[in-house]
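ERR on first pass: missing label on line 2. Operator R.T. fixed the label and resubmitted. Corrected input:
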Amino acid sequence: MDTEARAAVLKRSAFFHGLNAAIVDKIAAAALERLLKPNETLFQQGDPSTHHYIVAWGRLRLDQTTPDGKNIVLRFMGPGDLVGSVAVFRSIPYPATPTAVEETRVFQWTSDRMNELMSEYPVLAAKAMAMMGGRIGELQERLQQISTQQVERRIAAAILRIVAQSGRKTDVGVEIPFPLSRQDLAEMTGTTLHTVSRTLSAWIDEGVLEGKRSSHLVVLKPHRLMQIAEQA
Amino acid sequence: MDTEARAAVLKRSAFFHGLNAAIVDKIAAAALERLLKPNETLFQQGDPSTHHYIVAWGRLRLDQTTPDGKNIVLRFMGPGDLVGSVAVFRSIPYPATPTAVEETRVFQWTSDRMNELMSEYPVLAAKAMAMMGGRIGELQERLQQISTQQVERRIAAAILRIVAQSGRKTDVGVEIPFPLSRQDLAEMTGTTLHTVSRTLSAWIDEGVLEGKRSSHLVVLKPHRLMQIAEQA
DNA sequence: CGAATGATTTGCGTTAGCGCAAATCAGTCT
DNA sequence: AGACTGATTTGCGCTAACGCAAATCATTCG
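pass 2 clean. output:
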């Protein structure tokens, strides 16, 4: 990918959106690239945090492993999302592992390089704060859901969240454009593979979802899912 | 409180720690104060976010009410903690309500005033990011706990987190220096009042805790609590 | 002081969802 | 095509934790 193509991608990201074009070109020029095949990891939880990344295209799943060997899915990241920055800002090791769920291209900058850019263009700091604030809001929402709602509602909410972030409209409904296993959903909602499977089966019977085994999930009746997610 | 006293408080806070003394004096001079009696709220969830606050002394409980009327405790805030800033940065209404659990004094700055200060002293932006990053880390940790651990472990972890943030050493153990009800603990850990009560009763029997009804909780055997929190 | 209010404790029946196990299925590899 | 691998489905029993209800206790207020 040449600098120009990189700049075009960056201009579309929330993080660099609205910046002067010349600045974005310069930032794009400073980036290195990396291409991940499905199941490749960008870095490992526990590694020293050295780089900021931004997803150009593709999709990453951000996993956190607990001390006792369990796994939770913190989020999925798509084009324009920043990866690793929070850890770099805090000067702590990366707290989670990003794994490609499909072929994914990322750009990267060293911590130092990004610091230079941020002091040169202070608006970047504001963007970074907006990004972190959004992350806080999302985490608080999930904490609230998992604390107060039962499993079925949480699964519905998780699917809707993914749809809102990455859904692709088709003629029959909204498609989740990357492979999403029952296990993934279980680890996003704090439940088990089995319960997710049962719940999705019921929804498929009801005609709310469609999901031939390995193909991508399609939400046929988003409205019905929202109803489930909000039912008192 | 005069400017000098305010500056002394600020210098001890994580947010302003390490700044040039003259700068802190100036910031202190720009602050207004507010004094809250127990159970008074600083603002309401849903109010437009207009001010940044910092706790001078006392203690706030940050509550979030869900659309269906349930309540969760996001955190307790003590001296030096920033309140409201994340919402102000994001230009969204305050997402939660801070309530004083004891007499509490806060300083406040308008959004505009703080923006001026932050552009004048860029190091403040870095401090704000560190604060937000810490919040993200804490939320991820709680999400992970509530997703994977059973209730007893979560309650132990919640008590230990409070002890780490606000514990006061006494000759018999560590005291939590503000009133903390079973209900509060339930809303912090995503369980019920009843389960918390049963669990604490068992611990009191075991000699791990001490907590005459209305008096403050004292952890007699922190080590034992840690053991419970970490048991596989 | 005695009543009233609110928090806490505790017993008990219920159940959502877990965990195990086995069967099934889809896609891949040879 | 046939064997293999990993994901998914489904049945079944179990239990952690909930939810209700009643009793107890502490504190405040008249």
